[in-house]
């Protein structure tokens, strides 16, 4: 007889694939045969996970329609089974999945729309932490400035795209009632997603994006400044740091 661990593995595999023969014989029949009971359970799990994906990616669903989204969700959950007990983690990697999903290849902007929606989701559920107080920097000696490392607030997410995904996202909000036109020729965007009183999405210039991306990667202030200055030679680092710190982008620093 299989061990409990073996049965659990077979059960988990059977939810998203064919019911293993070694498991079928251990499912107790009731009002329905054992395999039919399992199919009912499978349907409930898949419907719950599909609804979870819809909640995270409402704009993607609106762009492709319910039938397409369900097909994509079914394929995604079979190849990316939930590996965490936290349902909020389900959906990570959906943008990368859409990049290689054959039916979505003509919708070249769709993966980046998904990235923006995932960033919004992660920002919304991020840990709550007080923003950096500027007065805390007063105790730092000027000789140490170059070695400072600024930590982004847990809710901060950075998104870059070659397409106008913010415009696509905006016109597909349920409350939006303005001009529905979208010009893919508008070009790309660099975006900051942050939770203040609510989740907000803001456009960044390329130098600001380079600075914050470097900070997110653990760069020192000198390294982050160099990244920004490579893009904009007259970049005002002091003003940029003050602006981002004042708006809650940073939560801490180390030296």
Strand order of the largest sheet: 2-3-4
Strand content: 5-15%
Number of strands: 5
Second rung of CATH, namely the architecture of the largest domain: Alpha-Beta Complex
Q: Return the CATH class of the largest domain.
A: Alpha Beta
Quote the CATH topology of the largest domain. Answer: Outer Surface Protein A, domain 3
Alpha carbon gyration radius: 23 Å
| Distance between the first and last residues' Cα | 59 Å
The number of distinct helices, counting runs of at least 4 residues, comes to 11
Mean pLDDT: 88
Shape verdict:
globular
Question: Share of helix among residues?
Answer: 40-55%
- Unreliable segments of 5+ consecutive residues: none
* Element order: H for helix, E for strand: HHHHHHHEEHEEHHHE
Structural class estimated from helices and strands = mainly alpha
Domain unit count: 2
Sheet having the most strands: 3 strands, antiparallel
Description:
With 255 residues, the protein is mainly alpha-helical. It folds into 2 domains: 1-107, no CATH class; 126-255, Outer Surface Protein A, domain 3, CATH 3.90.930. Helix content is 48%, strand content 10%. The protein is built from 11 helices and 5 strands. The chain has helices at residues 4-16, 21-24, 34-56, 58-64, 66-79, 94-100, 110-124, 165-171, 206-216, 221-231, 237-246; strands at 149-152, 157-161, 189-195, 199-203, 250-254. The strands form 2 sheets. A 3-stranded antiparallel β-sheet has the order 2-3-4, with helices on both faces. Strands 1-5 form a two-stranded antiparallel sheet. A hairpin with a 3-residue loop joins strand 3 (189-195) and strand 4. Helix 3 (34-56) crosses helix 5 and helix 4 (58-64) crosses helix 5. The model has no long low-confidence stretch (mean pLDDT 88).
